[in-house]
Amino acid sequence: MCAKLAELASRADPLCGLGTGASAGETATALEIPLALAQSYLLMAEERGVLCRDDGPRGCIFFENFFVG
């Protein structure tokens, strides 16, 4: 599951080539699962160091974690 979430979070924006991240809603839609389950999976992936989150103007968006060394 963590690999799927990392893939979703690292999708590149065609205009700038940077990762767009993934919200719980986008994750739920992409994986065809309930919103609460998507949020739970995203938080699990964050706890495991696979994803990191940004609480900003777009809401809570999860990105692939490049800070783990």
What layout of secondary structure does this protein have?
Blueprint: H1 2-9, H2 24-31, H3 35-47, E1 51-56, E2 59-64
Antiparallel strand pairs: 1-2
Helix pairs in contact: 2-3
Number of helical runs? Answer: 3
> What does the overall shape look like?
globular
Name the helix and strand elements from N-terminus to C-terminus, one letter apiece: HHHEE
Strand order of the largest sheet: 1-2
Query: What oligomeric state is this?
Result: single chain
Helix/strand-derived category reads: alpha+beta
Distance between the termini: 21 Å
Question: What does the radius of gyration come to?
Answer: 11 Å
Helix content: 40-55%
Low-confidence stretches: none
State the major sheet.
Answer: 2 strands, antiparallel
Strand content: 15-25%
Q: Mean pLDDT, nearest integer? A: 89
How would you sum up this structure, described in words?
- There is one protein chain.
- This protein has 69 residues and is an alpha+beta fold.
- It has a domain at 1-9 and 18-51.
- Helices cover 42% and strands 17% of the residues.
- It is built from three helices and two strands, in the order H-H-H-E-E.
- Helix 2 (24-31) packs across helix 3.
- It is globular, with a radius of gyration of 11 Å.
- The two termini are 21 Å apart.
- The mean pLDDT is 89.
